[in-house]
Amino acid sequence: MSDADTSGGAPTLRERKKLRTRRALVSEALRRFTERGFAETTLDEVVEAVEVSQRTFFRNFASKEAVALAPEQELWAAYTAAFAELPPGGTAQSDYREALFAAVLAMDEDWAARFRACRALAERTPALAGHSLRDCAETTDRVLELAAARHPVARPEDGVRQRLLLELMLSAWRWAVHDWLLADAPGSAPGAGADGDAGTGDGADGRAELVARTRRALTLLPEVAALAADA
Predict the structure, then answer these.
(1) Which positions does the record tag as DNA-binding (predicted)?
(2) Predicted confidence (pLDDT) per residue in 77-134, tens digit
């Protein structure tokens, strides 16, 4: 799935050119932010390297934070769209999970590498971490609105249950992403995350690995919920 693939039809030549420019800006920005630091890199340096104007940059992104977090935003947009397109018949819990997995697996082949750089940068840059949490919270609210239409609640506690289920699933996702990043951290075994499992890198395997790590984290949620209830 691409940043511009929202209409369901084949992108026009203009849309493809816009997407190439957007991707070039993201890739160059992430490379420079990673090598030199987020605060130390200026927008002038990014746009000059891509050979576009600041006006073109701001037609695509609202800020430095937005371009740095673009791969994550791509995923949240895809997640919301995938949830809205789910067939009827599932539970809220299965809908949350399957829409996320569908969104991850449908991302383009280069997305995992961009996402890895984006998340590694956010984990060591407080300003980006705050923006990332805000974006996740906004996505949570949008998905809960869609879930309320698909699974109307009769009691207030049912609405709380729906929110908690989504929050728990997203916590499992965040752990899976963090563990995936650890797989390539200096000093770690090649391809191994915190759970000791071998990683498979980026591309199609990277997307599948993210889903697999999230599935493993989800299996722990009943135990975690039981511990929380006993606290």
Answers:
(1) 42-61
(2) 999 999 999 999 999 999 999 999 999 999 998 999 999 999 999 999 999 999 999 9
Note whether 75 and 188 are same-domain residues.
yes
Buried b (16+ CB within 10 A) or exposed e, 28-51: bbbebbbeeebeebebeebbeebe
Q: 10 — phi, psi (to 5°)?
A: -70, 135
Number of domains within the chain:
2
Say whether both 196 and 142 belong to one domain: yes
* 28/110 same-domain check: no
Please classify residue 204 by burial: count the beta carbons closer than 10 Å to its beta carbon, then call 0-12 exposed, 13-18 middle and 19+ buried: middle
- The residue range of the domain holding 92 is 69-230
d(CA 192, CA 198): 4
Which residues make Cβ contacts (< 8 Å) with residue 222, sequence separation at least 6? none
Whether the predicted pLDDT of 2 surpasses 60: no
